[in-house]
Design brief:
6-stranded mixed β-sheet; 5-stranded mixed β-sheet; globular
Length: 486
């Protein structure tokens, strides 16, 4: 898994793989000057629609355009079929796991996972214990990070079960590509992603409280315009056709949530919240929160409003809990995991800690509650002083870290200014779990490490994004509906 890099276009023997046969002639016949012009046009389009993100802690703190690469990442229909089946399986197990740890705790009683990883987890919310959610769905929107390595197989790198972001870039990337290269879309049937907002809205309405009307009222709760993902919040609210609200726009009366409108109060049945647990309700969590809604959790526990994703889903985001996911899948579903985990050492275990300390220069070490590529050590890219400093952190708080091999992430052709060159990528498909079925639009957000040799794809650290195409081996796609599982 840490060997030679697998190139998704050229494969191992240098022959073009089936997925890329459709765009190989285009890449070979396109002048670099033409591609550069199209790259500039793409940047102009992103600036015009205001697709930006902010980096917390950045000295300049300005809004940035996320870098976009005009060369798509291509998957065949058979590759996608296997991946999507694995995603459905994994998210189903995640929902069963969360319902269990806040319920009977059978997975803990069976010794599958240590109790302290749950009950001492900072993301564990005691308020949710014994709380029966409608349809037992905790994670309505999941973003599962997938990588491909030198053995050509797909692995889950991370589960994002709180408030996964990035879907707006998936949608805008496709819009831009269709405008810049309409001939490619005319010549090849590429599975659509533009129905994602419809699928998301259907999912949210399906998990409304049992007392909700036939067409439940949905609102998207944002922390406000100073949040780094505010563009995505406003974008999704617009595409969904729902109100974008801040905490001050909502109030609770008699355990029912209402939205202030010019026509008077309007009841809200489902809240797609892009606000962390601790800030949701100052009466239940942080009393100094000015972003939440007083009384929201009381209305939630009364069964009068659905929060998506549910409170307390952060337990499933934990990188230490991630290491138990294969066992969790087997425990709840009685099946072998379709998508494998990356081999991981739990530094909380003495033997693993010993191994990690002896091999720090070879490994990637991550904080179990970290995100965005922060708080991690990339051993092969670090000097001796940095490694020694990190070793001291590990020894003082081993429970806070896991370690993984330095992964040979697959590479895809990328336009880097002077021409086409391979760059490392990962993929974040978005899985929607509703009361009726699981929905996945084909593809997802491909993130690319634009710096030569870099393995860090996060936009906050110099990464960019690509459009992700799913095609059939013969270049023809299946009918344009989302992947769904009953």
């Amino acid at each position: 898994m840490a060997g030679s890099v697998f190139d998704e276009m050229s494969g191992i023997d240098g022959a073009c793989r089936p997925a890329y046969e459709m765009i190989k002639p285009w890449l070979e016949n396109s002048d670099p000057a033409f591609l550069k012009q199209r790259q500039q046009e793409a940047e102009f389009l992103f600036r015009r629609v205001g697709i930006t993100f902010a980096v917390y802690g950045d000295a300049a703190a300005e809004e940035r355009i996320i870098p976009f690469d005009i060369v798509p990442r291509v998957l065949t229909g058979s590759e996608w079929q296997k991946m999507s089946k694995g995603l459905v399986q994994r998210v189903k197990a995640l929902n069963m796991f969360l319902a269990d740890v806040y319920g009977k705790g059978e997975v803990i009683k069976a010794g599958i996972i240590p109790p302290d990883l749950i009950y001492q987890n900072p993301a564990f919310q005691p308020e949710m214990v014994g709380f029966k959610l409608p349809h037992d769905i905790f994670v309505q929107i999941a973003g599962i990070d997938i990588i491909r390595t030198d053995d050509q197989d797909f692995y889950v790198l991370e589960d994002n079960a709180r408030t996964p972001s990035g879907v707006s870039y998936m949608l805008e990337n496709r819009d831009v590509m269709m405008r810049l290269f309409p001939d490619l879309f005319a010549d090849h049937q590429i599975r659509p992603v533009e129905n994602y907002p419809d699928e998301l809205l259907a999912t949210l309405r399906s998990v409304a409280p049992y007392s909700a009307p036939a067409e439940p009222t949905v609102a998207l709760l944002t922390p406000g315009p100073f949040n780094s993902a505010y563009y995505e919040h406003s974008f999704l609210a617009d595409r969904l056709g729902v109100e974008l609200v801040e905490g001050r726009d909502l109030f609770v009366k008699d355990n029912v949530v209402y939205m202030r409108t010019t026509q008077g109060p309007k009841r809200v049945d489902v809240i797609y919240r892009r606000l962390d647990d601790d800030f949701l309700d100052p009466l239940a969590f942080r009393p100094d929160s000015m972003l939440g809604v007083p009384g929201l959790i009381s209305a939630y526990r009364a069964g009068n409003v659905t929060l998506a994703n549910a409170v307390g889903t952060g337990v499933a985001d934990d990188k230490a809990v991630y290491t138990y996911m294969p066992d969790i899948v087997r425990f709840y579903l009685g099946e072998e995991p379709i998508l494998k985990n990356v081999p991981t050492w739990r530094c909380r275990e003495p033997d693993s800690l010993k191994y990690v300390l002896e091999h720090l220069s070879e490994l990637v070490v991550k904080e179990v509650h970290g995100s965005g590529g922060y708080g991690m050590l990339v051993g092969p890219k670090s000097d001796k002083a940095t490694i020694e400093k990190f070793a001291a952190k590990l020894k003082s708080a081993p429970d806070d870290f896991i370690a993984q091999p330095t992964l040979a992430l697959s590479s895809c052709p990328t336009f880097v200014g002077e021409g086409i060159a391979p760059r490392h990528v990962d993929l974040r498909p978005f899985v929607l779990s509703g009361a009726d079925r699981v929905r996945i639009v084909p593809g997802g957000l491909t993130r690319v490490a634009l710096k030569e040799g870099s393995l860090v794809v996060n936009s906050s650290q110099g990464g960019g994004t690509k459009d992700t195409w799913v095609i059939e081996e013969n270049g023809k796609a299946a009918p344009p509906q989302s992947q769904s599982q009953e």
